[in-house]
Write a sequence for this structure.
C-alpha cells in the first residue's frame, strides 16, 4: 500500500478557529459588557447628539431641517447595539498593544473602536457651524444653542435650533452690461435658479460653475466662476430674496475676452509613434 504524505500547517488551521471561538464567546458575554466600567476616571463616553427645533411661524419639513443639521455634527459616537458598545468593549479588553500584528492587535484594531469621549466634542464650534449651515440654506434668522447632558459615565449634546420659515427666491437678474453679460443672458434659460426655490448657497455655487463652463464653450477661455458674485437682497419683504449677478471688482481683461481659433495646421503623415515625448 502506498503511503500518502500530507503537509498540514496546524497554525494556519488553529489560529482562525481560535479567533472564531473567541468571537463567539465574547458575543455571548456582550450583553453584560457595555464597556462603561472601563471608562477612565474623569472621562465621559459620548453617546451622540440630539437635535431639537423651536419653530416660529409656519415651518414645514422639520425632518429635513434636522437631517440638514445632522450632516454637520461631529464627531460620530461609537456604534451602539441595544445599548451595548461592542467596539468600545473590545478596545478596552485588548489593552495596550506594542506589536502591529498578532491576536491582541487584531482584537483592538479590527474589532475594537477608539472610544469617543465628551472631551472630544467641541459643542461651541459645532453650534456655529450649524447656525451658518442653516443660514446658507435660507434660514437667515436661525439661532442654535447647545447644552451638554451627563448621565453617569455617558453624555450627549443637545442642539436646539430656533428657526423661521426659509427665504425663497423672488427674482434672478442677469444684467446686460457688456458682451460677457449678454452671453450670460443668452444661457439663463438653463439656470439652476428658479422662482420660489428656497435660498441655497450650494445651488448658487453650482449656477456659477454652470455659467463658467458655458462661457468657456463660447470662447471665454480664461473665465473663472470665482469672478461671479450673487448679491442677495433679503429686504424685499415676505421672506423673499432678489438675486443679482455681478462681476467681482478687478476681473482681468483676458477673462472677459472672447478667444477665437487662429491658424490650424494639419500634418497628414504624422503618427503617435514618431512622438519622441511618449
Amino acid at each position: 500500500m502506498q503511503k500518502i504524505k500530507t503537509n498540514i500547517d496546524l497554525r494556519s488551521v488553529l489560529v482562525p478557529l481560535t479567533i472564531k471561538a473567541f468571537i463567539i464567546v465574547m458575543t455571548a458575554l456582550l450583553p453584560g459588557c457595555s464597556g462603561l466600567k472601563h471608562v477612565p476616571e474623569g472621562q465621559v463616553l459620548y453617546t451622540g447628539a440630539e437635535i431639537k427645533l423651536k419653530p416660529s411661524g409656519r415651518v414645514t419639513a422639520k425632518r429635513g431641517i434636522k437631517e440638514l443639521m445632522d450632516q454637520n455634527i461631529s464627531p460620530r459616537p461609537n456604534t451602539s447595539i441595544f445599548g451595548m458598545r461592542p467596539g468600545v468593549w473590545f478596545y478596552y479588553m485588548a489593552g495596550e498593544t506594542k506589536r502591529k500584528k498578532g491576536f491582541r492587535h487584531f482584537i483592538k484594531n479590527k474589532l475594537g473602536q477608539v472610544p469617543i469621549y465628551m472631551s472630544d466634542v467641541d459643542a461651541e464650534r459645532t453650534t456655529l457651524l450649524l447656525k451658518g449651515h442653516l443660514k446658507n440654506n435660507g434660514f437667515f434668522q436661525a439661532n442654535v444653542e447647545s447644552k451638554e447632558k451627563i448621565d453617569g459615565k455617558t453624555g450627549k449634546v443637545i442642539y436646539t435650533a430656533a428657526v423661521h420659515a426659509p427665504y425663497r427666491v423672488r427674482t434672478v437678474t442677469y444684467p446686460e452690461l457688456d458682451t460677457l453679460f449678454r452671453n450670460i443672458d443668452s444661457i439663463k434659460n438653463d439656470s439652476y435658479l428658479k422662482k420660489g426655490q428656497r435660498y441655497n448657497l450650494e445651488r448658487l455655487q453650482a449656477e456659477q460653475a454652470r455659467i463658467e463652463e458655458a462661457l468657456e464653450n463660447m470662447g471665454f477661455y480664461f473665465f473663472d466662476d470665482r469672478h461671479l458674485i450673487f448679491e442677495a437682497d433679503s429686504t424685499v419683504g415676505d421672506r423673499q430674496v432678489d438675486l443679482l449677478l455681478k462681476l467681482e471688482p478687478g476681473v482681468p481683461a483676458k477673462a472677459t475676452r472672447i478667444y477665437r481659433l487662429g491658424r490650424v495646421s494639419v500634418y497628414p503623415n504624422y503618427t503617435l509613434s514618431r512622438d519622441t515625448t511618449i
Notes: The mean pLDDT is 85. Strands lie at 45-56, 143-151, 154-164, 168-173, 228-233, 240-247.
